[in-house]
Amino acid sequence: MRWISIGLGAALLALQWQLWIGASGVPELLELRASIAEQRAANRRAEQRNDALAAKVESLKEGPEALEGRARRELGMIREDEVFYQVVEE
């Protein structure tokens, strides 16, 4: 009977060791939870960026005014009947 108790105690200690200190125990669980939190934050940032890009695409599809405004602002384009003046500060 005594050997059975010692054997069960040793088995319990081995299982507890594996749970708390082993490679696939609590430390790995904590690392995985942190990794999941980081990935969720990255996913939220990507979703926000995608939403902003989708809104920009929709505004460009809506009408020529948005497209013209963007061409003027980002590319410096002008219409055929306009005159371009460049002011150089000294």
UniProtKB/TrEMBL annotation:
Family matches, as InterPro entries: Cell_div_FtsB, FtsL/DivIC
Tell me which stretches of the chain form a coiled coil: 29-63
Q: Primary place of residence? A: membrane
In terms of superkingdom, the source organism counts as Bacteria
Q: Which residues lie on this side of the membrane: Periplasmic?
A: 22-90
Q: Which residues lie on this side of the membrane: Cytoplasmic?
A: 1-3
Q: Where in the cell is it found?
A: Cell inner membrane
Which keywords does UniProt give here? Cell cycle, Cell division, Cell inner membrane, Cell membrane, Coiled coil, Membrane, Transmembrane, Transmembrane helix
Keyword Nucleotide-binding listed? The answer is: no
- Signal peptide range: none
Membrane topology of this protein:
Single-pass type II membrane protein
Q: Name one Pfam family in it.
A: DivIC
How is the quaternary structure described? Part of a complex composed of FtsB, FtsL and FtsQ.
- Name the job this protein performs: Essential cell division protein. May link together the upstream cell division proteins, which are predominantly cytoplasmic, with the downstream cell division proteins, which are predominantly periplasmic.
Instruction: Spell out the family assignment given in the record's similarity comment.
Output: Belongs to the FtsB family.
HAMAP family per the UniProt record, alphabetical: FtsB (MF_00599)
* Name by which UniProt lists this protein: Cell division protein FtsB
